Amino acid sequence: MDGLLINSEDIYSLAGAIFHAWAQLPLTNAEFLSQQSALQRKHFPSTQAMPGVMSLLSTLSSTTTHLALATSSNAANYGIKTEHLSSLFSYFPPSQKVLGDDPRIPKGKGKPAPDIYLLAMETVNEGIRARNAKAGDRTTGYEAEREVTPEECLVFEDSVPGVEAGRRAGMRVVWCPQPELLELYKGREGEVLAGLTGAHKDDEVAETAVKEAGVDGKVKGRPGEIDDGWGQLLETLEDFPYGKYGIDVKQS
Hints:
The protein is built from ten helices and five strands. By secondary structure, it is mainly alpha-helical. α1 crosses α2.
C-alpha cells in the first residue's frame, strides 16, 4: 500500500528528514520514534493516490478480478493514511483487507514471509465459498465458482520484501518501486523479481505456511528463478498491460 497505492513513503521520508534536521542532541530510540510518529500522524492525512492507481482499480473492478489488500501498516496507521481516501480503498471489500497487525498472521511472519498474501487469497476464497453456499441453496443447477489459486494471483508491490513475499506465496508479482529504491537495486532487478535478495531465510517455515494454507502451487514457499517470467518491473502503474496477465478489459 505505502508507496504503491498512496505516496505515504514520501511522508515517512519527510518525517525523518524534518526530525533529524531539528534534533541536534543525542536522543534515545524511544524518543526518536515518538517524535517521528507525531510527525507522521501530522502528515499522513495529506497522502494522495499514486499515478495510475485509480484507473487501475476502477478497471480491475469492472472485470471478474477479485481485489484484496495486504499491507504491513497496522490498523491505527492504516486509518490515518486512508480515512480521506475512501474512494480509493472502497474498491477493496472490508473482508478482503489484511493489515499488518492482523491476528491471523503469526508473530514474526510479516513480509518477506508469504503469510500475508496467502491470507489475502484465503479471504477471497472465503467469500467465494460463502456465495457458492448461498446461491446453491436457492438456485437449481447453480454452477459453483471455483476458488482462486496462487498461480492466478497477481501481487502489486513497491518494496523488495513484498516482492519476495509474493514470490514465496507462489504468485506472480508486479514490482513498481520508488525511483530511489530502483536506483539502489540497479543491476539486481532480476534478483528482486525472483525474490532472491535474501530477505527471508526461513525456507522450512515458509514452506510449511504454504502447505498449511492448502496451496498446491509451483513455488511451495521458495522464491523463483531469475527471468522466469513471474515478475515484472514497472516504473508506473499508468497504462497497465492488462492483456499480458489475461485480464479481459472491455473497451468502451
